[in-house]
Amino acid sequence: MQGGGCGAFAAVALNLMNRTGTADYAVTGTWSSKAAKEAAKYGKVNLVFPKADKPGSIPDQKTWSMDPNASYVYYCDNETVDGVEFPYIPETNGIPLVSDMSSSIMTKKVDVSKFGIIFGGAQKNIGPAGVVVVIIREDLLGNAMKVCPSVFDFTHIIKENSIHNTPATFSVYVMEKVLQWIKKSGGVDAMQKQSEEKERLLYGTIKQSNSFYHCPIDERVRSRINIPFRVGGKNGNESLEAKFLEEAEKLKMYQLKGHRSVGGIRASLYNAVTLEDVQSLVKFMIEFQKQHS
Ligand code: PMP
Question: What are the Aminotransferase class V domain coordinates in residue numbering (predicted)?
């Protein structure tokens, strides 16, 4: 579908909220927060735990206050900006589970049968921006609100075989190439194995740096994909971080700057980033630490 991840924030609510008029949201960072705000336009949103000022952990599911009347339970599998990833699939006792997998789709195996809806914006691991993949359980179709635009109505889109209007053809074409590449490279199994090797290498380097590099995220929920860290101690040294980025660019390592809302550094280890790329990054990090500590 079109509309990207943010389009899906609205589409999920427009298609499911009508069931009871309320929905449960687990807000663990930037993107689930935006999704909850969008959904609140269409019904009552219940936050299953209070929104943290600084994301960095996920409260134990035993402590969540879930609404037994919720139309669906929503969470973001991997918070791209904040570097928090769910290490488990939440239990919802039969209520449809919705997951934003924009930044983790195709990086690990997922039991699709556990979900009501999975969606993922393509631009991280499956192709160019502008397309979003939506997987919906058939029995959830047919619940869209009357005001739901046809371009966002999952039932209508399926009926029209995903060509209700002109699709983002070039993006879909490239996506097919990327999916063939994943298949040829050993499929999602191979992507997951590589992802685990990459994160082990980078977190290992951070851990062994004597706090020169510091990752603020609770170890139990650290993302394998988006790894935020500070340079020069726990609170980061901004001038050292600027130098880090400048020297990394000289070695052709780009886009390592943390999101503007978080600061510091963020390494995004999407499928297209190879193990060799991460080896180059940690080699540079070790060298940089030697020169600046
Ligand atoms: N969800 C997540 C987890 C994301 O990382 C992003 C984009 N970075 C979005 C949603 C929004 O996607 P889009 O920009 O395609 O609307």
Answer: 2-281
Interface ipTM above 0.85: yes
Span 271-285, average pLDDT: 97
292: CA distance to ligand 1 center in Å? Answer: 35
CB neighbour class for 112 (10 Å; exposed up to 12, middle 13-18, buried from 19): exposed
Residue 53 has pLDDT above 90, yes or no: no
User: How many other β-carbons are positioned within 10 Å of the β-carbon of residue 218?
Assistant: 12
The answer to whether residue 17 scores a pLDDT higher than 90 is yes
Do 14 and 136 fall into the same domain?
yes
Residues 204 and 228 in one domain: yes
Pocket of ligand 1, beta carbon within 6 A = 4-6, 31, 76, 80, 100, 102-103, 121, 129
Atom of ligand 1 nearest to the CA of 132: 15
Domain hosting 202: range is 188-292
- pTM score of the predicted model: 0.97
The reply to whether 192 and 177 lie within a common domain is no
> Does the annotation mark 108 as catalytic?
no
How many angstroms does the Cα of residue 15 sit away from the middle of ligand 1?
Answer: 19
> DSSP letters along 122-140, please?
TTTTTSSTT-EEEEE-GGG
State the Cα–Cα distance between residues 35 and 282, nearest whole angstrom: 34
The question of whether 100 is a catalytic residue gets the answer yes
Report how far apart, in Å, the C-alpha atoms of 74 and of each of 53, 77, 182, 220, 293 are.
20, 10, 28, 20, 44
